[in-house]
Amino acid sequence: MSLPSLVAMPTPLLPLVRRAEEMFLSALRDLSEQALERFDAWPAERREAFGRVCAASNFVIEQVSRDPEMLLGLAEAGLLERSLNLGEMRSLLDGELADCDDEPRLQRTLRRFRNRQQVRIIWRDLTRQAGLAETCGDLSDLADTCVDLAYQWLYARHCEQHGVPIGARSGKPQHMVILGMGKLGGHELNLSSDIDLIFGYPESGETQGEKRSLDNHQFFLRLGQRLIKVLDAPTVDGFVFRVDMRLRPYGSSGALVLSFNALEQYYQTQGRDWERYAMIKARVIGGDQKAGRELLNMLRPFVYRRYLDFSAIEALRGMKQLIQQEVRRKGMADNIKLGAGGIREVEFIGQAFQLIHGGRDLSLQLRSLAQLLTTLDGQGYLPSTVVKELREGYEFLRYTEHALQAIDDRQTQMLPDNPIDRVRVAFMLGFDSWDEFHARLLFWRERIDWHFRQVIADPDEDELSEGEELVGGEWLPLWEQDWDEEFACRQLTEAGFRDGHAACRGLAALRSASQVRTMQRLGRERLDAFVPRLLAQAVEQEDPDLALERVLPLIEAVARRSAYLVLLTENPGALQRLLELCAASPWIAEQIARFPLLLDELLNAGRLFKPPQAPELAAELNERLARIPEDDLEQQMEALRHFKLAHRLRVAASEIAGTLPLMKVSDYLTWLAEAILKEVLALAWRHTVARHGQPKRSDGSPCDPAFIILGYGKVGGIELGHGSDLDLVFIHDGDSNAETDGAKPIDGAQFFTRLGQRIIHLLTTQTTSGQLYEVDMRLRPSGASGLLVSSLSAFERYQAQEAWTWEHQALVRARVLVGCPQLTEDFERVRAEVLGRQRDVEALRQEVSEMRAKMRDNLGTRITQAGMADKAFEAEVDFNLKHDAGGIVDIEFMVQYAALAWSHQHPQLLRYTDNIRILDGLEQAGLMTGDEVRLLQDAYKAYRAAAHRQSLQKLPEVVSGDRFHDERRAVMRIWRELGLR
């Protein structure tokens, strides 16, 4: 289609124009009299264009009012009335970056350049001086230029700091390759689009030129994180581009940057159909262009198959169905990109031919949709009349998209619902009224959707849709009609419920709940569509009564947020997983009911039942927080809590499904805590330093940060369970007397105390997503009466001179969770010296026995050691897994006793903090027999597995007395053989 025509200014927009002119004139007056004169010298055509642009775009009004010199400069340079030459965008930014000497200035320069170019591009688009191709091309060039020049600037500084990355195989310096995906890759970017990127680098190796080298992966990972922050982080000047990295291998949970070999291996072995679709538009936009071309050549066989690949149609159908589900779930029928007859359908038509025939017909291997449509016409894949309609409809939709986004520089494809913005959109598209525009829009959407159905839609789709409506159909009368309790109970019982009356009462309670009674029509329709499906799947469960009982509170909790009901309706697999997990664990049911956002985790079974390893956990959390402004503490705290909730659910689900054994459950929960603590320490440190300045180390050097968090107990022993609290101790190596160097200086002791308080605040504060962890600090020197944070020297002095034996027992399970590497080494030395000194074994045995007896008396089931033979193994006497004789604590005390008694002769006993590996060490040192070690390890694992199951069932760590007889007897026997009482 041709450019949208110019129409007369609608009356409702005149006040906007007057306000904009007044704001601009006021800003000019504040600038100088000469500025006013420069504006007065504008020709009439430009003044008229200024009014048209301001009538349409709040963004332009805001920018030129904040910086009137920007618009005057653009006008005087002639950039409002002419197209940019090839390479001119890059030259303009290159010149502005010439004197840029620090990262804040880089961010400021990029953002102001972007804003200036956005004003220029919007001006030319709205005044019909630029067509769609020029507008999209300029926006894509702007993104290319900003990304690459920001990368080149950061790369040079990164090399100065860490050395130059060198390939291990080639011996040559390495650069990153930045792939632009989606519309950016196709050179079709819209006015307020995010940019989809993938980062890669040619080969592994390490940096050279600095004392401390980095491997290439770490180098480019840190560089990529800095680049995203420079582009994406909002500042007073806005942002450059929102960066989306989710198209990379493994999505948000994958590494931020991968080597070429890793990328090739992933796409060859794990690449999915939608990734083929995405990779069609991949283009090198930054970094090493030559290496980037090599990478794309490596990946081309994944995208384009050598045979006629008609399976691509089915893949695109599946993608379209997912999009339709999302559109329905979020009520986005008015979305001109994703809705029926939208931009995405035109793209799907073109890419269907590319995926099917592109491996054989090289002319189809194009990124630009406009060029692709021309090729489909010229090569006879589609009739010319169809291509003409698709092109004109697509251009109309893209012009509409630009109009929607020009208003507020906001990424939206939703039609406006307020009158003034509707007038604006119609005006920008050359229509006298919204009704005229909307009628034309509907025409094009209907034509596009018709063509889409001819190419991609499933011929059996209508029949399937009718069938889908029948899912749970037998339950519709029971739910939607007036209750006939007798009939309802009989139907529920006949379907498989043990107690039809209880199920009936549960459903009746849901119907009468206030949240349901006050639902709006759309929400109630969604609930009515969902409940029959819920019942249909519930009766398929092993225990339908339990599944329904535990899921109904969740349904009531989310009734007013009915998008969750649509999610479960549209994703039967997610609903099935919800029922299975809730039936298996009331703890999981309660978690999801309290935090319904966890329902999203049920969508991907592969991810749900396969939690990431420790490095991926840490990388994923770091990336999430990197996208949040540093000063937005509330959002950071919510992100931490959401991350913990999601990953804790994955671990629990994996344990229930049997895909994660006991030891790995504790590993994952411990890794999760460590990843969170690392980020909490970083947040607390940044906040405290910003307020008070940097403290000094004990040797006078700057701290960054000379601080560690010790984990005791379960977290120290890598044995965390569901719902475990954290036993923590804080240690610093700062100068307690030296003042910090900030605006509000305090001495070092105060600084580290406030740092510790900040950490505890971040961990324990209740938000809408709960708290991160309960924290117990009573194991610090002198307990609750001691300092919150100790210096390492004070900690060492206390442990050597004042600590009780039970504190040294606790120290056996203590390890550094996060913090300064040097201080970590110093602590490990102190721990080894304290625990490894020679002790009076008889006195030690006496003290350990007495402490154990006190704990058993206070916390166990009150059966004395002497009475164990008579009473402990009676079925009616419960067994406390942790505290009763022969239980978990007995094994822990034996291990701690052994470490304290013999580590002076066998220092390897102090290498690990978990009981299983310390027991292995006792066997290797010949201090216990293999049979004894195996008995203790097996008993310990069995007890912990039972404790985990009790936790998931929301039950105390107490089981029937008729369980674990053999294990308890073995533990008590070895206890006595060690001479403990």
From TrEMBL:
It comes from the Bacteria. It holds the Pfam family GlnE. One of its GO terms (molecular function) is [glutamate-ammonia-ligase] adenylyltransferase activity. InterPro entries: GlnE, GlnE_rpt_dom, NT_sf, PII_UdlTrfase/GS_AdlTrfase. Its cofactor is Mg(2+). Transmembrane segments: none annotated. Residues 1-460 are annotated as: Adenylyl removase. Residues 318-455, 872-949 form the PII-uridylyltransferase/Glutamine-synthetase adenylyltransferase domain. Residues 471-981 are annotated as: Adenylyl transferase. It is an enzyme of class 2 (transferase). Its EC number is 2.7.7.89, 2.7.7.42. Residues 50-296, 575-829 form the Glutamate-ammonia ligase adenylyltransferase repeated domain. It catalyses: [glutamine synthetase]-L-tyrosine + ATP = [glutamine synthetase]-O(4)-(5'-adenylyl)-L-tyrosine + diphosphate; [glutamine synthetase]-O(4)-(5'-adenylyl)-L-tyrosine + phosphate = [glutamine synthetase]-L-tyrosine + ADP. Keywords: ATP-binding, Ligase, Magnesium, Multifunctional enzyme, Nucleotide-binding, Nucleotidyltransferase, Transferase. Involved in the regulation of glutamine synthetase GlnA, a key enzyme in the process to assimilate ammonia. When cellular nitrogen levels are high, the C-terminal adenylyl transferase (AT) inactivates GlnA by covalent transfer of an adenylyl group from ATP to specific tyrosine residue of GlnA, thus reducing its activity. Conversely, when nitrogen levels are low, the N-terminal adenylyl removase (AR) activates GlnA by removing the adenylyl group by phosphorolysis, increasing its activity. Belongs to the GlnE family. PANTHER family: BIFUNCTIONAL GLUTAMINE SYNTHETASE ADENYLYLTRANSFERASE_ADENYLYL-REMOVING ENZYME, GLUTAMINE SYNTHETASE ADENYLYLTRANSFERASE. This is Bifunctional glutamine synthetase adenylyltransferase/adenylyl-removing enzyme. The lineage of its organism: Bacteria, Pseudomonadati, Pseudomonadota, Gammaproteobacteria, Pseudomonadales.
